[in-house]
User: Fold this.
Amino acid sequence: MNTAGLTPSQGRRTVLIVDDEPNNVALIEMAIEDSDLPVDVATARNGAEAIDRVLALRPAVIFMDLKMPVLDGWEATRRLKADPATAGIPVIALTAQAMRGDRERALAIGCDDYLPKPIDVRQFIALVREHLT
Assistant:
């Protein structure tokens, strides 16, 4: 796994997981490992770190927690989608914020999809596959 934000292995694409909860990150990494998808995983613990990683790695897809310290996923997504260099990278809201209207709000700020926590591993892997094509 590429958790240090290094260049992905040749022929593989990078999936960026942005979440401040280590258990969530570990679950996602295990799910990707078990799926045999041709991806490397990079991680970020907050939105500010995510923006730096996106600029350095140009991931194929970003799974963004919306509630984090330093810079939340709402603002990080707004900034990424406002920048022409990163606007085309799919951002999937990955969040425990599953209240009525949160999905619509996430889509309105630029998220390309929305996946509530706790994570349904099959649905998560399906989203990764969909955004790698």
Notes: The beta strands are 13-18, 39-44, 61-64, 91-95, 113-116. The two ends are 21 Å apart (CA to CA). The longest strand covers residues 13-18.
